[in-house]
């Protein structure tokens, strides 16, 4: 019994300590992102742009393709039920609403976790193993300012931007499947889509995607800074970065879905 | 050898713990301006921890480190960054940023800390690389260099801001004797040319004989001897004698003790 209590207590303390470290990381990042540039301590704008291109622009092909395919899948799957009621034109509504509110933000976030979140962990982890982080510190260059802040702002902007494009491509995928496979009239599909799309859905999808971006970047950085030991440590933390990040994305998704359900 | 005794770094009763384990246990010494101060010790003696405390990568649990008379352990972030611009450090694995070229590595502190023109920075980078014998290598990536060249590039980067103090962590580790000797000569040259105060962590007696003005011998987190090489060689301390004579530890005394060590039973 005492052993169980002890274990639970230790686990809770560890979690608390981990929470504190995440909080410190967040405060540091925000300081270097918002406060320090205002005091004239500089922000690495170029690096942020480079990262935006890497996280955002370069992920467009894969995100575009996956979103297109998911659009096709949603259309065909919903046709399976809607066809029985002769309601195939409501495929457009279903595709539009699910793309905006759920699938495009989620798919984009998951893909960017796999593509960029893991890369952030691997990069920072390798730098930690090679004492590069310490070297920055000794040179008087704050690693948070130098490495984390540009990645953070880039990710924060890239995820919503890519998500918007993903939304349109997903709707286009649904259109292609409905019109060419199911046989819905092209104009009816477009008409139903414009009727279905509401500002609220777009706002919800984008709000979520901003928080997804925050989660991807912070988990990536946090796991990277946790790396100990050699290449093996980098591998282990990269895996754990992806798992944690996807878990958090689903959790954030749930919280927002519940929130918007009642609001 | 420093003619005027003017300490640039003073370490007083330094204690560093990792969890329950005490790695440094009340270490005190002074580094004089312009000398090469060697921290010598076996594996696990705490010498790397000591060096990392000196440059502020590890916060000591107690004790003080005075750099140029100011308390390095209790100053705020801004003052610390100012002081760090006066320090250069060469890491064991050179720790060059792998994503940028050698030249950009050397230029990095200049770009971030000064408002020099780009052309000036380029010239200074080339001068520093020339200094360590890497002229013409500024466009190479660190991964394209050999171990010894990486060390030299690391020294060039540490020298970028024209520091007063330079710290070397195991400069000759993992290098063949000829290349290692080259690094030793370079350390000497830097100190003589720029009147640099240098702190070198090593376990190699050959380099100690070549470069040391003052030696601090660490054993199990304690400084068991500080002085010139000749003074230490004449020391009566058993560990120092053992280290200098390159004698292994005594084997486990008895069979029963050996059996206890294996089985973990009393």
Structural notes for this entry:
The complex is a heterodimer of chains A (263) and B (266). Chain A has 263 residues and is mainly alpha-helical. Chain A has 9 helices and no strands. Chain A has helices at residues 2-38, 45-55, 60-82, 91-129, 132-138, 143-182, 186-196, 199-226, 231-262. The radius of gyration of chain A is 22 Å and the shape is elongated. The termini of chain A are far apart. Chain B is of the alpha/beta class. Chain B folds into 2 domains: 7-86 and 163-263, 3-Layer(aba) Sandwich (Rossmann fold), CATH 3.40.50; 98-162, no CATH class. In chain B, the strands form 2 sheets. Chain B has a 6-stranded mixed sheet, sandwiched between helices. A 4-stranded antiparallel sheet of chain B has the order 2-1-4-5, with helices on one face. Chain B is globular. The termini of chain B are far apart. The mean pLDDT of chain B is 86. The A-B interface holds A 123, 126-127, 130-132, 134-142, 146 and B 52, 55-57, 80-82, 84-85, 87, 89, 91-93, 95-99, 108-109, 112-113, 157, 161.
Can you tag this structure with a few keywords?
heterodimer, A: 263 residues, mainly alpha, 87% helix, B: 266 residues, alpha/beta, Rossmann fold, 2 domains, four-stranded antiparallel β-sheet, 10 strands
State the gist of this model.
With 263 residues, chain A is mainly α.
Layout of SSEs?
The complex is a heterodimer of chains A (263) and B (266).
Chain A: H1 2-38, H2 45-55, H3 60-82, H4 91-129, H5 132-138, H6 143-182, H7 186-196, H8 199-226, H9 231-262
Chain B: E1 7-18, E2 21-32, E3 36-41, H1 47-54, E4 62-67, E5 70-71, H2 77-84, E6 87-90, H3 102-113, H4 118-131, H5 147-158, E7 165-169, H6 177-194, E8 197-202, H7 205-211, E9 214-219, E10 222-227, H8 229-233, H9 238-245, H10 255-263
Parallel strand pairs in B: 3-8, 3-9, 6-7, 7-8
Antiparallel strand pairs in B: 1-2, 1-4, 4-5, 9-10
